[in-house]
Amino acid sequence: MCLIVFDWQPDKAKLLTLSANRDEFFRCDAEPMHWWTDAPGVLAGRDLTGGGTWLGVSRDGRFAALTNYRAPSEMRADAPTRGTLVSAFLSGERIAPMDYLRRVAEEGHRYNGFNLLAGDFTQRELGWYGNRADMPPALLDAGVHGLSNSLLNMSWPKLVAQRDALCDLIHVDEKPPLDVLIDTLRDPRIANDDALPSTGISIERERVLLAAFIETPEYGTRSTTALRVFCDGDRLSLEIKERSDDDGSHRIVWPGAFERAFSFEI
Predict the structure, then answer these.
(1) What is the pTM for the complete model shown?
(2) Considering all CA atoms of the chain, what is the largest pairwise distance in Å, rounded to the nearest integer?
(3) What are the residues whose beta carbons fall under 8 Å from the beta carbon of 166, sequence distance 6 or more?
(4) Quick check: helix, strand or coil at residue 36?
(5) Residues 6 or more apart from 205 whose CB is under 8 A from it?
(6) Structural domain of 25
(7) Percent of the chain with pLDDT over 90
(8) What is the pLDDT averaged over residues 144-159?
(9) What sign does the dihedral 101-8-39-46 (CA atoms) show?
C-alpha cells in the first residue's frame, strides 16, 4: 500500500472516511479482498508470497493498513515480510491498538521501512507507528491525514493533492460515495520536477512514482480501496469497496476494473 488519505473523527458519527492505493509489481501474486478462510473474521486482500496483507478490517471492528518506506539503500533481503504486521493485528488476540503498535516497535528494527496504522473502531482509537520515525507510536488526532512512502503527513505532492481532494469531497458531502473516493485517488498526473522528493532513485523513477495512480509496464497501482465507518444509531456500520486488476483467479487486467464491495455492522 503506497498512498492512503483519510479523515478520522473519533468523536463524531462519521468516524472514518478513507481511500488507499496499493502499488506493486505485476509479477507478485495476490488475492483480492475477501473473507479469509483461515481467519474468518478478517476481510482483506492477501499477498500470496508473504501471506500478509496491505489493508484490512475485521468483523469485530479492527482496522490496519501499511505503506512501505522508500529507502532503497537500506533494503535487506533477509528482513521479515511487513504485510504480516497488518494480518497479525486483525487476526490475533484483541488488544488495544497502541499496545499492539508498541509491541511492533520493540521489533521494528528487524523490518525494512514501513508505516503502520492500527485502529479499533469500537474504542474510537487509531494509532500510527513508523519504524523510520524518531518517535514512538502515537494516537492520531482528529482530522485529515495522509501516508505515502515517507512518514505521516509528509508534504509529497501526491499526498498533499489527494489529502486536499479528500477535504474538498467531505466539505461538500460528509458521506461521499465510495466510487467517488476511488475515482479521485486514481489520478495519473505527475508532479513537476521541482516538487519531487529525493529518495535514492533516479529522477525518471521519482517522476513516475509521484503520481497517485502509477502506470509502468512492470509496476503500478494494483488496487484502490475506499472505506467508510459511521455511527448508525447505537451501531457502527462499515462499508468497503475495492477496485483491482485481479478478478479473483489471478488473471491480471490493467488498469483494473474488477470490483468487490462489502458492508456489515460491527
Answers:
(1) 0.93
(2) 52
(3) 5, 6, 7, 17, 19, 144, 181, 184
(4) coil
(5) none
(6) 3-265
(7) 74
(8) 94
(9) negative
